[in-house]
Each structure stands twice: as structure tokens, then as C-alpha cells.
Design brief:
By secondary structure, the chain is α/β, with parallel strands linked by helices. Strand 4, helix 4 and strand 5 form a beta-alpha-beta unit. The strands form 3 sheets. Strands 3-9-8-7-6-4-5 form a 7-stranded mixed beta sheet, with helices on both faces. The chain contains 11 helices and 12 strands. It folds into 2 domains: 100 residues, Alpha-Beta Complex (Aspartate Aminotransferase, domain 1), CATH 3.90.1150.10; 219 residues, Aspartate Aminotransferase, domain 2 (3-Layer(aba) Sandwich), CATH 3.40.640. Keywords: Lyase.
């Protein structure tokens, strides 16, 4: 059954509470990708036309995060993007992260141990207080396992005027949460969760000081100032902007991102956030869970997975608990159905 939300249609939204795993595409995106697959099948696909979708996706990410377009680079995954960042931090750098952090945000830094880089895990409150004592903070704005939200304002205040680099994975926030992160050295997000796009693309914004310290280890033809003029031959000629860190686009993924991100950026983001938090917080009240302004809710309820599956509720299990997420296409019917299944 098709459901309309925020001016778009979504086919599988009824009972779908699994957006922290993957988001549902709006129908206009499905139509565009289907049409493009048809041109591929027929041998009439126009490859240079994907450049327009790359540009639109980049601009959409910049608008959603509140950063300049020229600071945004295109990657394939969060970990590959952060690999470039981790390779650029100095030998012996001290990195701090949250205990239990999603490993795509931490493994790239832990893999630098041969250079003397250390990664320390702290509880969120301690991390915020101690951030300025470290060279790098690498953490998610919203935790994948349980939806916990970092006190980003306290972190900003704690590192203001210091040399501490801030690296924030916003994959589980961007799309439902309103953010303004122009002060952060690195933001990064995959597009296939709350950004409603096919898997295969991630976007990363870079501060000037971070960008200057990085080496484009994956330099390729698409990282050139004029990509179609840098297909063959030396010398190296890369873009002056963060585009010099671009990877070659994953066609159908960037097509989707070039449609979905501008759509999300065009919405009233306060209204989207209020909608998602309204559903999540009502669930917390109904189940007498601790307050937490997050669209992700962790439910440590025995037997819940089986009950949800029988009721046709689509969710996931993370860190030993049921994890549900409320996005712009969810409504009160999904919440009531979830509560009924949990109380069965």
C-alpha cells in the first residue's frame, strides 16, 4: 500500500521501522532508477549525464549539513572516506571515541596503530569533557546500536580554540535530524539509510585544515577539475576543491542520491525532525523508557523479535535489543501496530 508523506509516495512504509538499516526510496526515485536501468539494458544509457546527479547530491549534502559545496567529497563508503582522514593524522596521534562505537568510524583510526596512533574509548559524557585532551575526536552524532545522541553543542564548546580535530559520522542522523555542522573538521554519511538512496555512495565534508593535511590516495580520473579531460596521461591534475578526493561515481547510487538529497534539503527540516521525534518519544512514554530525543529507539524486550515478525513489523536486532527507527514516512498506525505487537 502506497503512503504519502511530505509530498512523496512510499510503497513499503506500512510497518517498516527499519530505517537505521536502510531507508525506503520515494516513488519518484524508484521511477528514475527503473528508467535508467532500462537505458542500460537497451544500450542507450548516457554516462556523462550522471555528472548532474553527482553535483545535485553534493549540493544536497552541503545544504543538509550546512557546509560549503566546495568542501564536500564523494566516497563509496564511510570507512573508505575516513581511511583518507586517518592516514592524514600525525604519527602518535591520540584519538578518542565512544565505547561501542560503530566500527566504520573507528577501525580506520585503529588500523593506524603501526604509526603509534592510539584510540581510547570513553562513555559519551566523559568524551565530551575530555575531548580537548586528545588530538582527534572520532564519533557518531547518533549511535547506531541504541540511538544515543551526542551532546554536540557541549563538544563544540569543549574543543573551541584548540587543535583537536573533530570527525563526526552523521549517517544515523542526517535525514531526520536538523544539523548545523560547519564548525566540524570532517562530517561523513552514507546515503542508503535516512537519506533514502541506493547503497554505494557516501559524502564527506572537510574543513580547510583537514583538507590541506590529506593526501588523495585514491586519486582517479573523476577527481580532476574537468573529469572528462583527465581520463588519460600525466601529469597529475586534480581539482582544487574537496573534489580532488572524489571516487568515480557508482551510477545508480548517485542517481538516487542526486534526487533524494535535494528533496530532503527542500523540506522543512524542523517539521521532519518533530515528526520523527514525536513518534519515537511517544513510544518511549508508552513503554516507560528513559527520555532521549532520537528517532532510533532500542527495546531490550525478551521475545520482541518474534512478536514483531508475526505482526509484520520490520525492525532489526542490534546489541541484543530490538532497534526501531521512525522516519518521515512513518505514522501513528506504525506506532500503534508496534505497541500492539510488543504487548501481545
Amino acid at each position: 500500500m502506497t503512503r504519502e508523506a511530505f509530498g512523496a509516495e512510499f510503497l513499503g512504509a506500512d510497518g517498516f521501522l527499519n530505517s537505521p538499516t536502510y531507508g525506503l526510496p520515494p516513488q519518484f526515485l524508484v521511477d528514475a532508477v527503473t528508467e535508467c536501468v532500462g537505458t542500460w539494458q537497451n544500450g542507450t544509457m548516457d554516462v556523462p549525464s550522471f555528472d548532474e546527479h553527482v553535483a545535485a547530491g553534493r549540493a544536497g549534502y552541503a545544504a543538509l549539513v550546512g557546509v560549503p559545496v566546495d568542501s564536500v567529497a564523494m566516497a563509496g563508503t564511510v570507512s573508505s572516506a575516513l581511511g583518507l582522514v586517518a592516514a592524514a593524522i600525525p604519527d602518535g596521534a591520540r584519538v578518542v571515541t565512544v565505547a561501542g562505537e560503530f566500527t566504520s568510524a573507528t577501525f580506520p583510526f585503529a588500523a593506524q596503530s603501526g604509526r603509534g596512533v592510539t584510540v581510547t574509548e570513553l562513555p559519551p559524557d566523559e568524551l565530551v569533557m575530555a575531548a580537548a585532551d586528545f588530538d582527534v575526536v572520532a564519533v557518531s552524532l547518533v549511535q547506531s546500536a541504541n540511538g544515543a545522541v551526542l551532546d554536540i553543542d557541549a563538544l563544540r564548546a569543549g574543543v573551541a580554540g584548540t587543535a583537536t580535530l573533530t570527525v563526526i559520522d552523521i549517517t544515523q542522523a542526517l535525514g531526520w535530524k536538523r544539523v548545523e555542522l560547519d564548525w566540524v573538521d570532517v562530517t561523513v554519511a552514507a546515503v542508503y539509510k535516512w537519506l533514502l538512496s541506493p547503497r554505494g555512495t557516501a559524502w564527506m565534508s572537510l574543513s580547510d585544515r583537514m583538507s590541506r593535511s590529506m593526501t588523495p590516495h585514491a586519486a582517479n580520473w573523476y577527481a580532476g577539475e574537468s573529469p572528462w579531460q583527465t581520463i588519460y596521461g600525466l601529469p597529475l591534475r586534480l581539482a582544487d576543491s574537496a573534489r580532488r578526493f572524489d571516487v568515480s561515481p557508482t551510477w545508480f547510487s548517485v542517481l538516487g542520491a542526486g534526487l533524494a538529497l535535494p528533496f530532503l534539503a527542500s523540506l522543512d527540516r524542523d517539521a521532519v525532525q518533530a515528526h520523527c521525534l514525536g513518534l519515537a518519544n511517544r513510544l518511549r512514554v508508552e513503554l516507560e523508557l528513559a527520555p532521549q530525543d532520537s528517532a532510533i529507539v532500542s527495546l531490550p524486550i525478551d521475545g520482541a523479535a518474534e512478536n514483531l515478525a508475526r505482526a509484520g513489523i520490520r525492525a532489526s536486532v542490534r546489541a541484543g535489543a530490538i532497534r526501531v527507527g521512525f522516519h518521515l514516512y512513518n505514522d501513528e498506525n506504525d506506532l500503534d501496530r508496534l505497541l500492539g505487537a510488543l504487548r501481545a
